[in-house]
Design goal:
By secondary structure, the chain is of the alpha/beta class. Helices cover about 40% and strands about 15% of the residues.
């Protein structure tokens, strides 16, 4: 029991870190993104959350000198939540962010001047999980259960269309919305039957604390493919610094390739940069799940965005009531900097 209380305390610390507001002062941004001879360009990439295993490919690119080889001095900085970071990018306080694409689509519909220039997860790795003694093989198994999810999380926002796609009677599902830390505590204390978890972050942490392997269904296997990790840029910055964006994407692609080839080495690199340490085996599982969610290389550049996938996501967001009107898909994204 002492071990379980310790594990739950660790979760409370990890998942209830205070939200911080970040202000970024742009430094050394040359006109049109062209650095002067012999100089490097300083840029800040703002993550939408605290450091975690799914950011490993970018740290691989940093540690292996891929950004430096492009003449970029990149600061990979923690963030305070997707909605906050996207707003800061739209305002121009931050210039470049890295986080979920769907949040950006919602912001663009509200008039924020931002766009997605690369997507690395065609299906964000989210699952619904239960302890081994709670049957969970299909979404229909959610009926008769108590489901816990975090306030504002992706799955919570898309629960209604997910249920409709899979013929789940939501009248038979008791849903409880709470903070991330409360959801972790309640689920681990067996006061929730099922909970939605990020497979590339939370699932390894929860399983380590519980000492068991959970039953898990991936929402992407049941009709809910949501665009995930992406680069988000301020419109004006991208227009004035096109070569900077191209350099950033080229170097990041190399980081993704290396992490895909050897996620254990990528884990070692990520481990050096973690501000809040987790067990090495947990971090490795986070990195492995992240790389599993990234598509294998094709004839298209890494990060290339598919218009059909974007249109499907926009329709999904509209059906969930997250956006009112669907604009032309190219309002939300561009592949221009990947060419």
């Amino acid at each position: 029991m002492t071990i379980m209380r310790s594990a739950l305390y660790s979760f409370a610390v990890v998942l209830s870190l205070p939200l911080l507001a970040f202000a970024v002062v742009a430094r050394a941004e040359p006109v049109d993104g062209v650095a002067t001879a012999g100089s490097t360009q300083k840029i800040v990439v703002r993550f939408t959350w605290k450091l975690k295993g799914e950011y490993a490919p970018l740290f691989v690119a940093l540690d292996k000198g891929y950004y430096a080889a492009e003449g970029l001095d990149v600061d990979l900085a923690e963030g305070s939540g997707a909605e906050t970071v996207v707003k800061m990018i739209g305002l121009g306080t931050d210039k470049i962010g890295y986080g979920p694409a769907t949040v950006v689509a919602e912001a663009i519909n509200q008039g924020l001047p931002a766009e997605i220039v690369a997507v690395y997860q065609p299906a964000v790795p989210i699952g619904v999980a239960s302890f081994p003694d709670v049957p969970l093989k299909t979404p229909k198994d959610m009926e008769g259960r108590t489901l816990g999810f975090s306030i504002g999380e992706t799955f919570a926002n898309l629960l209604v269309p997910f249920a409709k796609i899979n013929n789940v009677d939501m009248a038979k599902v008791k849903t409880i919305q709470m903070s991330s830390s409360a959801r972790a505590t309640q689920f681990m204390a067996r006061k929730l039957d099922i909970a939605s978890l990020y497979l590339s972050n939370e699932l390894p942490l929860f399983e380590k604390a519980a000492g068991v392997k959970f039953n898990v269904i991936k929402i992407s296997d049941f009709g809910l493919k949501v665009l995930g990790a992406s680069f988000i840029v301020n419109d004006d910055f991208a227009r004035n610094n096109p070569e900077t964006i191209r350099k950033l994407l080229r170097a990041t692609a190399k980081g993704y390739l290396d992490a895909k080839k050897d996620y254990r080495v990528a884990t070692d690199i990520m481990n050096k940069h973690m501000t809040l340490k987790v067990d090495r085996d947990v971090l490795e599982e986070q990195v492995r799940a992240t790389m599993d969610s990234a598509p294998d290389p094709t004839d298209k550049p890494i990060g290339w965005q598919d218009d059909a996938e974007w249109r499907a996501n926009l329709d999904l967001l509209q059906s969930a009531g997250l956006i009112k009107d669907v604009k032309d898909s190219h309002v939300y994204y561009t592949n221009e900097y990947l060419r």
